[in-house]
Predict the structure of Transcription termination factor MTEF1, chloroplastic isoform X2.
Amino acid sequence: MLICVKNVLLVLGDVEKDFGFGVIKWRCPKQTIPPNSDTGFQKKLLYLESIGIDSFSLIENHPMLITTSLTDIKSTVEYITSMDFTATEFRRMVGMCPEILTTNVSDIIPVFTFLHDEVHVHCSDIKRVINRRPRLLVCSVSKRLRPTLYFLQSIGIEEVNKHTDLLSCSVEEKFMPRVDYFENIGFSRRDATLMFRRFPQLFCYSIKNNLEPKYSYFVVEMGRDLKELIEFPQYFSFSLENRIKPRHKKCVEMGLCFPLPVLLKTKEVKFQSRLEVFVNSSTPLKTSPLWCAGSDFYQV
């Protein structure tokens, strides 16, 4: 992308227009009409720059901004900042989700109402929720947020207000493929659902880049029982290369076998100290009742 104000060329895409202060090229959707110099486009650029937003890169990533009126953009900015978001927070939100600037206030207000009335997010927590997942503001309450809420509740996740980042996800495109994946590798629908209920963030992990390689290592290299994953689905949240493999290999070398929570959740210093203790102690066999819970020593 090249930028030009006064004699410097700004290239944003495939459509070119001379606005008087410079020539602009941008990638324009087929149904988007290139703005004329009298549409206030220049004022729009200057306004965005005045609030600290890089308008040119924003237009390249979200060309619909070209046809959104300055009045609508200002209304959106003023409404969101009136909700106690700082200028820095707002810029970060737009950087993460440019669509916010082209979303009407009439569509944003219902999101705040939904989060408070239906998801039961406390007023003091709504700002934190939006900062964490700005995309919530551009989601339709009736078509996306509410159906996702109902799905999460249907599988037994009662406190959805603790997992609001999931609300912007599609049940059909995001959630069900992951549930189906666990069914396809041997879990019953009931057990798969139980795993997501115990660890809702499991919905966020890539099947190809996370679930598949970690499951393969768990079964092939670790040779452990699937029941352990049902009880501790958080296994998938740990780094395969930096946590799972090194600790498993160390335990194999020493002839040790810890429960998954102890193996993975224990802080590094404490984990190493436990290994040292076992150097001159009897080894806890997997068939031993001490291998699972029951002894404070084996707790995380």
Notes: The beta strands are 10-12, 15-18, 23-26. The two ends are 51 Å apart (CA to CA). Residues 99 and 233 are 34 Å apart (CA to CA).
